[in-house]
Amino acid sequence: MKEFVLIFRMTKDDQPSPAQMQERMKLWQDWMGGIAAQNKLASSGNRLGTEGKVVKPKNVVTNGPYVEIKETIGGYIIIKAETIDEAAEISKGCPILQGGGNVEVRPIVSME
Amino acid sequence: MNNEQELIPHLFRTEYSKIVSVLSKLFGFDQIEIAEDIAGDTFLTATETWGLKGIPPNPTAWLYNVAKNKAKNHLQRAKLFENKIAPEIKINLATNQEIELDLSESNINDSQLQMMFAICNPAITMESQIGLSLRILCGFGIDEIADAFLSNKETINKRLLRAKEKLRTEKVKIELPGIQEINDRLDVVLTTLYLLFSEGYYSSSQNKTLRKDLCLEAIRLCYMLVENNATNKPPVNALLSLMCFHASRFEARTDDNGELVLYNDQDSALWNKDLIEKGEYFLNQAAQGNKISKYHTEAAIAYWHTIKDDSKNKWENILQLYNQLLQIEYSPMAALNRTFALSMANGKNAAIIEAEKLKLTDNHFYYVLLGELYTDIDNEKAKQHFKTALVLAKTDTDKKSIIQKLESLLKN
Asked: What SS3 state is found at B196?
């Protein structure tokens, strides 16, 4: 089994209502629970806050990572899969796809 | 007469472990076999004397007295013959000829608690930890332990001897670890208690009384941890809560013939309300700190099972708890139960998709689950799955319940 990071990207103007948030939370938990039930969840990862700063050369610090791009990284998890295709297959169930976001699947480079 | 016949086994269970713990604490863990010998000898003397002269008015006090004398005799002999052991004894024999064996309630509790940490040591296997706990902390006989593990006396004896030898070479001390270490070691202690309870709750041993005793002992030891300030932590309360909820169904889950009654068929009037209330109390006590242990999640799942009526809310909660539990720690059983909860909360079709992904193909419960999910959706498939389950099932109880499901499927 190899490990893959699933990076969740979402659009910044996506502001759900509390009811929608509740609904989405269940979708996320059911999806994560489904991966864990197959014993393929390596790490529940982390969610990232929406504020952010970008530090550039010559002491240039700007607010927010998404000045130029519309998308922002919302978080990530790490899963176990045989191939990147299997990891991509698992990502198809991710609730972020329903809200206009996307999932980037990247293998973790093994040090062994 | 019946009462008198049961007195010795009862006292053995309650007092043997206390005497061993207190003596081992006094002598040191490397002398644990001497402590066991003295305790065993005490009961032998009791059997002989009481058989001749009748039972004394206060049997427990009598036992403590005899144990004290035997311990003193042993120490004096040890002092005379090998001046080796005496200096290692924590009390000063030279200035205090009259050694006082402290069998007060508080010293018994302290000694047992410390013994728990000494036994639940990662240096020995989990099986040995449970075996030693049963022997030294719960006063179970070797044959009873063999029965609980579905093993034989020789195997258990060997296992316990090896474990004690290992603890001796590791120079394990009978003491509470420092505050820093308590949290780490507590995990191992809790795992042992959890397994001790499961051993009683799920054991395929036919001896119902023994199994119930195992569960009650696990509860007693866990309660001891709650009673002590140093070990009264949220996960300990959560585990105790979990045990109370499960134990509340003890009477309802077997019928008069000792056959297992499945949850759905249980008479909830037989559920022990008192234990359910205790479970709720300890679950509330567990709701402190910011770390959710698997015991928290499992206790919360067990709480929802104390509500017999099915509701969307109940199963949605159970599903989310299993989602959480699986993220803390994967186990095939949790994966199967989660999928069942999914079918109750999100419907059978959604659950079938998830169940097909699990691929637990060596587990008969997996095929029972698939059979149940396909029932009324595709009965032909359901039948096939139940048949596969029947081939994989090992115990008669499991086979019987699968045959019942097959029969009711064929009737419809």
From this structure: helix
